[in-house]
Structures are given as C-alpha cells and as structure tokens.
C-alpha cells in the first residue's frame, strides 16, 4: 500500500468521523464493476471507490418499535439521520474535490420516482467497505450496533485504503423474517449478484409502510430492525 494513499485515507477517515458519523470505511468497487453496470448502467464507471458512512440511530428508539409499532419518534429521527447524512456526504465530497478528486454524493434516502429504488446501494457499499454484512432483512448489520444505523455513500476516483467485506453472521436466525407483518422478507442470505426481489418483496414492504401512515400517522415501519438480535445490550 502506497504511503500517500494510507495517509490520505486516515486523514479522510478522521475528517468524516469529526462530522458526526458513527463509522466510515472505504470500498474498492472495481471487482464488482460488471455487476454495478448490470444494475445501474455505466453511469458510475468513473468512480472506482466508495466512501461509506454510517450514522448511529438511537437504540432506544429502535427497541421501542418492537413494543409500540411505528412511532413518531422513529419517523422524526429517521428523517433527521437522512439530513445529517446528506450534509456529511456533501462535506466529504467537498473534502475530496478540494484535493483534486471527482466525487459524487448519493443521497441518503431513495430518490427514484416510485421511492423503491436508490441510485446506488448504500448497503452494498458499506458491506464492501467492511462495515458489516447485509442481513436477511436486507439491512446492513454491524457487530456492535446491529441494524441501528443509517447510511450514505460518496463515490469517488480517489484511491483509498479499502476494507474487506464481512461474512454474514445471520446464521440460522429468522427473527426479521418472523417479525415482518407484510411477509416481505424471504429469509435469503445476501449475495452480490442476486436481484433484491429474490430476498425481499419490496412492493409488499412499501404497501405496509404506506398503510402505516393511515393507521399510525407515520410513513415508516422498522419492525425488522427492532427484531434483530445484533446490537442489543
Ligand atoms: S420495514 Fe416492515 S414491512 Fe418492510 S420488510 Fe421490514 S418489517 Fe417488513
Ligand atoms: S434478524 Fe437475524 S436474520 Fe435478520 S438480519 Fe438480524 S441476524 Fe440476520
């Protein structure tokens, strides 16, 4: 590893953590470029690296979901975390651009017209950066916080010292599968080249979340997060 790359990676890590992030890691996307192209087209060809950032969600708020169902508090902090992550992504982009690199911040929340698809997978970037594994719930699970974080990604051409993807530790667990009231989770182990529809019925999830707005007044769910045994003290 080139010393300059190592030093810049350390400096960037320190900077991102100073903005309020809970975790940051770097992913080398080059071994997955064909798969990325198949999913998103050639739009990201010029960005072989990714900065993946996790922002910690309050664990009490996630745990409360299991007792009360979707709550206003969760909806509020979900939005707040997305705003915080978008700001971190912009500051990270600025940091990279000031050093002469190209960078593209991927918004923290989905921006497609139907709200179902992101323009790049934050979870895949976080997994490839070594922050955690993608659970059967399709959320990023980290050893210390389970699914209790939200993510943002900055794609870049800056060469970075990259992490190693973490093996899944879901094992035989079926907690998220059993907790999903929409029966959207299919209980499959994540694989990079697998279509997301093989793991989760996104339409069923979306409809349940939409109906929550009528029942609870908030457009969220998160029951699969509160059911996960990882990250619980
Ligand atoms: S957010 Fe709710 S509906 Fe969607 S997969 Fe998780 S538990 Fe199921
Ligand atoms: S609840 Fe169990 S199966 Fe689902 S993501 Fe967490 S550890 Fe994996």
Explain what this protein looks like in three dimensions.
The chain is an alpha+beta fold and 233 residues long. It has one domain (3-227). The protein contains 8 helices and 6 strands; from the N terminus they run H-E-H-E-H-H-E-H-E-E-E-H-H-H. Strands 1-2-6-3 form a 4-stranded antiparallel beta sheet, sandwiched between helices. The protein has a two-stranded antiparallel sheet with strand order 4-5. Strand 4 and strand 5 (140-141) form a beta hairpin. The longest helix is centred in the middle third of the chain and has 27 residues, at 72-98. It binds iron/sulfur cluster (2 copies).
Q: Provide the structure class.
A: alpha+beta
Instruction: Give the mean pLDDT.
Output: 91
Question: How big is the Rg?
Answer: 17 Å
Which strand order spans the largest sheet, edge to edge or round the barrel?
1-2-6-3
Question: Strand share of the residues?
Answer: 5-15%
Main sheet makeup: 4 strands, antiparallel
Number of helices: 8
Number of domains: 1
Strand/helix succession: HEHEHHEHEEEHHH
Low-confidence stretches: none
The overall strand count is 6
Small-molecule components bound:
iron/sulfur cluster
Fraction of helical residues: 25-40%
Shape from CA axes? globular
- Straight-line distance between termini: 37 Å
């Amino acid at each position: 590893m080139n010393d300059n790359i190592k030093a810049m990676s350390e400096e960037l890590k320190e900077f991102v953590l100073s903005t309020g992030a809970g975790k940051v890691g770097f992913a080398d996307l080059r071994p997955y470029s064909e798969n990325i192209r198949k999913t998103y087209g050639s739009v990201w060809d010029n960005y072989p690296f990714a900065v993946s950032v996790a922002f910690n969600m309050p664990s009490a708020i996630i745990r409360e979901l299991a007792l009360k169902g979707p709550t206003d508090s969760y909806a509020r902090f979900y939005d707040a975390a997305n705003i915080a992550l978008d700001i971190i992504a912009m500051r990270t982009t600025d940091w990279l651009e000031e050093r002469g690199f190209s960078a593209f911040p991927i918004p923290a929340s989905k921006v497609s017209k139907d709200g179902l698809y992101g323009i790049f997978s934050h979870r895949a970037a976080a997994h490839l950066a070594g922050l955690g594994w993608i659970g059967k719930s399709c959320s990023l699970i980290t050893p210390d916080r389970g699914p209790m974080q939200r993510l943002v990604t900055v794609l870049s051409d800056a060469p970075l010292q990259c992490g190693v993807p973490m093996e899944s530790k879901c094992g035989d667990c079926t907690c998220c599968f059993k907790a999903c009231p929409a029966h959207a989770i299919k209980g499959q182990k994540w694989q990079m080249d697998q279509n997301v529809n093989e793991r989760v019925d996104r339409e069923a999830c979306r409809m349940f979340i939409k109906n929550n707005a009528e029942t609870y007044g908030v457009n969220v769910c998160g029951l699969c997060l509160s059911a996960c045994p990882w990250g619980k003290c």
